[in-house]
Amino acid sequence: MGFFSRLFQPRADGLQAPSDWTRLPDSNASELVLFDEEARKLVAQFDIDAAIVTHQRWLPWLGEVLKGARDEHLRPEAVADDARSELGQWLHGSGREALGHFPAFDMLMRRHHFFHQQAAVLIRHAEAGETLQAEQAYKACQHASRQVVLLLKELQRGLVRGRRPAERRRDKSVV
């Protein structure tokens, strides 16, 4: 329900919506209006959920590289460029636009870049047969990945804290 309370603001006149849903509001405009700032935050929040999911796909792929699997898409020079991943594209684009003002955003950018650097190191060592170094790089990737996810969740919490106090109280009462 908290999700819908963010989408559908109460009527400005304080009246209940008709329960039969057979008639339209008196005005020509929809009552289901999302203000620009709220829409931006909601879109950013959905992007954060998607970003977490897409980022978490990396560790299993890198784990397969450790086991000897080779994938032409996981080339060190491509993996090292953090702007080429789905999360990187989001971070460098709409994520920065929507969330760049949060203090955690810059740290997220640095940790995400570090993750990609370590992933490239892992692939290079794995391809060279340097198992111990590849495993160390994998551990660095795991640690950086956990930090990336935590920072994404912190940004998501920042969106909730950034909403008006009445909206937060309403969401808590519904939960």
Automatic annotation (TrEMBL):
Gene3D superfamilies: Aspartate receptor, ligand-binding domain. This is Chemoreceptor zinc-binding domain-containing protein. The lineage of its organism: Bacteria, Pseudomonadati, Pseudomonadota, Betaproteobacteria, Burkholderiales. It comes from the Bacteria.
